Q: What sequence folds into this?
């Protein structure tokens, strides 16, 4: 009974903002647990359906396509903060204007991008781009077209998730991924029993299914829960685009850095090593990133909660929340260390002898992810506060340094050198982020620290 009462108190006592966050964290952890299990099941299933090199091609191509996500020019994150602020002030009309304007701008941008890609895709030599001769250029062009078009559509329709996150309902948003993954997993399982391995079919399944889930979710929520915020041409107000884009552009440049650091990694490994090394890096990263993924679920509700708290000048709640999250960061670092130590046994059980993953590669990935864990609460709070100008300068420095450093170390040490370059870049954020947050929440931030 004491345990039951303790659990009940945990989810029912405290600040209303904290109670809401804790409930959604619990739901999200459950959903992400399902997603992780499904994600782990994907790897051996796909390796059985395709070979390691074709799997590496799929991973590299997917990473290249994600570069195009920066064409949202940060509007998604700009909408998240502005929508949360409008809800905090009970300005529902303004919230709908933000939603309608964002959908209108991104709709035009993404239609243009798709048309341009369809025109130039036949002219691209995908064998050269992906550094492979295993699959013909014509087949790779078809795969690229499928992946690109549906990636853009998914990016557009996932705006409903942005609205849910802004409304401090991340658990519902986190349900879309597992639903899509389970459906895709079932389809691929059936394909392994009934057809020969096909990169085109795999690409179609993994690209189309998530979009279908998001389209259904978009219509359901805008017809029910968010009917009063449903996008409408009548509520499109381009004069408000300045408010969305002003904040959005800052997120935009930070997103570019994220795309370069993560998506470029697969491309560089493919160039300086081979597609099997791409697969090895991704399998190791997928396993070790589970800890960061869990922590990300815990942090997710705090973004919009911090936006709400900051608009109400509730610095006490912000300080208490940050203190608790920093303690949790230490626990997550230990969890990553434990995951590293047992990784050889996990890989053996998980994928057998299909892929060789050097322990040195797992070690460098772990050190990098440990840094991400430590900086994660500060990054989340800065995003929620909307104080991103300093982050732009940090991102610029990291972008300038990363490519040449990754080139030098990648040429000499392959995948290991490229991942080590990521680790070195993260040190900058590890220093700057905490300083800025502590200045802001103690109301001592001036100049660029408060912009």
A:
């Amino acid at each position: 009974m004491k345990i039951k009462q303790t659990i009940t108190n945990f989810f029912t006592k405290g600040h209303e903002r904290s109670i809401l966050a804790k409930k959604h964290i619990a739901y999200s952890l459950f959903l992400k647990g399902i997603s992780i299990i499904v994600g782990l099941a994907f790897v051996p299933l796909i390796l059985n359906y395709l070979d390691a090199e074709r799997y590496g091609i799929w991973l590299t191509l997917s990473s290249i396509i994600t570069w195009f996500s920066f064409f949202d020019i940060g509007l998604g994150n700009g909408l998240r903060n502005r929508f949360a602020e409008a809800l905090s002030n009970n300005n529902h009309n303004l919230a709908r204007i933000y939603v309608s304007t964002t959908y209108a701008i991104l709709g035009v941008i993404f239609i243009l991008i798709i048309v341009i890609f369809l025109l130039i895709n036949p002219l691209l030599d995908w064998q050269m781009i992906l550094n492979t001769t295993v699959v013909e250029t014509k087949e790779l062009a078809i795969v690229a077209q499928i992946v690109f078009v549906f990636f853009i559509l998914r990016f557009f329709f996932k705006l409903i998730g942005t609205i849910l996150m802004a409304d401090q309902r991340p658990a519902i948003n986190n349900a879309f991924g597992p639903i899509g993954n389970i459906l895709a997993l079932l389809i691929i399982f059936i394909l392994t029993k009934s057809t020969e391995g096909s990169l085109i079919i795999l690409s179609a399944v993994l690209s189309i299914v998530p979009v279908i889930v998001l389209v259904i979710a978009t219509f359901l929520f805008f017809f029910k829960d968010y009917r009063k915020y449903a996008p409408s041409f009548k509520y499109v107000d381009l004069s408000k685009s300045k408010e969305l884009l002003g904040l959005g552009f800052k997120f935009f440049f930070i997103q570019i850095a994220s795309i370069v650091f993560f998506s470029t990694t697969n491309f560089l490994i493919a160039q300086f090593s081979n597609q099997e090394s791409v697969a090895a890096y991704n399998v190791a990263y997928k396993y070790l990133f589970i800890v960061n993924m869990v922590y990300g679920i815990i942090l997710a509700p705090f973004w919009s909660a911090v936006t709400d708290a900051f608009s109400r000048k509730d610095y006490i709640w912000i300080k208490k929340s940050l203190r608790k999250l920093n303690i949790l960061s230490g626990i997550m670092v230990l969890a990553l260390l434990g995951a590293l130590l047992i990784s050889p046994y996990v890989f053996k059980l998980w994928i057998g002898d299909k892929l060789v993953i050097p322990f040195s590669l797992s070690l460098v990935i772990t050190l990098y992810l440990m840094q991400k864990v430590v900086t994660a609460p500060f990054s989340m709070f800065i995003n929620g506060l909307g104080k991103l100008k300093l982050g732009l300068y940090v991102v610029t420095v990291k972008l300038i340094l990363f490519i040449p450093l990754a080139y030098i170390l990648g040429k000499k040490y392959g995948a290991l050198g490229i991942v080590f370059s990521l680790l070195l870049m993260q040190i900058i954020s590890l220093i700057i982020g905490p300083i800025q947050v502590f200045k802001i929440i103690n109301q001592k931030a001036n100049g660029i620290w408060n912009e």
